[in-house]
Design brief:
Specifically methylates the adenine in position 1618 of 23S rRNA. GO terms for molecular function: 23S rRNA (adenine(1618)-N(6))-methyltransferase activity. With 331 residues, the chain is of the alpha/beta class. It is built from eleven helices and nine strands. The protein has helices at residues 9-29, 57-63, 85-100, 116-129, 151-160, 171-183, 185-188, 226-241, 256-259, 264-276, 296-305, and strands at residues 71-73, 78-80, 140-144, 163-168, 191-195, 213-218, 283-290, 310-318, 321-329. Strands 5-4-3-6-7-9-8 form a seven-stranded mixed β-sheet, with helices on both faces. A two-stranded antiparallel ribbon has the order 1-2. Strand 1 (71-73) and strand 2 (78-80) form a beta hairpin.
């Protein structure tokens, strides 16, 4: 992402934060008691997921009243327009308040707004990889590309009481994530957000000498170009709505570094594998989401070349989306 040197990022963040706090103060005055959610069984999410039941919109709209404007009936069932980024953002705010006690959460316009259940699944599968790490054992994770939302660290703290370092190359993402952490006491001492100032590196520059992590995680940019990202978004909207979107419609958020990079997913993860050799004593398990199945075999071959001792591929599925986690270690 190119930064405008004349733009006052600090002023922009402070203005956004004041609006954020004013809305949050109003919420705290009328916050409803959380209700137990009925168990309407869904499939495919991790067995430990707290999202293995349909969203209880009656409760979620008490927590985030504006969400009610985006709920409608379909096939005698309440649902949401998941192609609308504002609807997804409001749903995320409600879910984070309901399940993880996150009182203050917001992201700037046009930044990636990830779905909470799928992100929680990644966390649960990492817990499996760590042999069911309990809350009594202090685990520290490294989130590469944490984004403005800081979602993976928030969920990791809420589910397993882990500690996190989140990194990002985008200064607005870093400042926004830091503001979210600072504004929520339950996570304030558990999460640190650092800026990666070396755009050509992934681990170099953000891991301190002698620092130890049980794992690293990453949801990498998987498109090769903005045009490819646009086409992928068009397919996504059509799958969600059944309609062909207008050519100008670019409905999901996301900055360049979040959506695409030169060479796409395989180039990014290949670089991650190369760099991981130098940090074999700092990180126990390296992990990364892989969205394109055809990339698995060449990446496994690359891991053989760097002599990774253990390599695992963990399948994940949420609804119509299928992805997998590639994990490797050197011990």
């Amino acid at each position: 992402m190119e930064c405008n040197e004349n733009y006052n990022y600090e002023k922009s963040i402070k203005k956004w934060y004041l609006t954020f706090l004013n809305r949050s103060k109003a919420y705290k005055l009328c916050r409803p008691k959380l209700l137990s959610l009925p168990a309407i069984v869904k499939t495919q999410l991790h067995p430990n997921s707290r999202f293995n039941s349909d969203y209880h919109f009656a409760t979620l709209t008490q927590i985030e009243p504006e969400l009610a404007n985006f709920i409608f009936e379909k096939h005698n069932k309440q649902t949401l327009d998941f192609a609308d980024p504002l609807a997804v953002k409001l749903l995320n705010k409600a879910l984070l308040k309901a399940h993880y006690q996150i009182e203050f959460w917001d992201i700037p316009e046009h930044y990636l707004c990830p779905a909470i259940p799928g992100r929680a699944d990644y966390i649960h599968y990492i817990a499996d990889l760590l042999n069911g790490a309990s809350q009594d054992r202090q685990i520290k994770g490294l989130d590469i590309g944490t984004g403005a939302s800081c979602v993976y660290p928030i969920i990791g703290v809420g589910e397993y009481n882990w500690q996190f370092v989140g990194t990002d190359i985008d200064p607005i993402s870093v400042k926004t994530a830091q503001m979210i952490v600072k504004s929520n006491p339950p996570i304030g001492k558990k999460i640190e957000v650092r800026q990666q100032k070396q755009a050509d590196h992934i681990f170099t520059g953000v891991i301190k000498k002698g620092e130890q992590f049980a794992f690293s995680m990453c949801n990498p940019p998987f498109h090769k170009s903005l045009a490819e990202a646009f086409k992928g978004n068009q397919r996504k909207i059509k799958n969600l709505t059944g309609k062909t979107p207008a050519k100008s419609q670019f409905n999901f958020g996301g900055q360049q570094a979040e959506l695409w990079c030169k060479g796409g997913e395989i180039a990014f993860v290949s670089q991650m594998i190369t760099e991981s050799q130098a940090y074999a004593e700092n990180i126990q398990w390296f992990t990364c989401l892989i969205s394109k199945k055809e990339n698995i075999k060449p990446l496994q071959k690359r891991l053989q070349q760097v002599k990774a001792k253990q390599v695992r591929v963990i399948d994940m599925a949420q609804g119509n989306k299928v992805s997998r986690i590639l994990a490797w270690c050197y011990t």
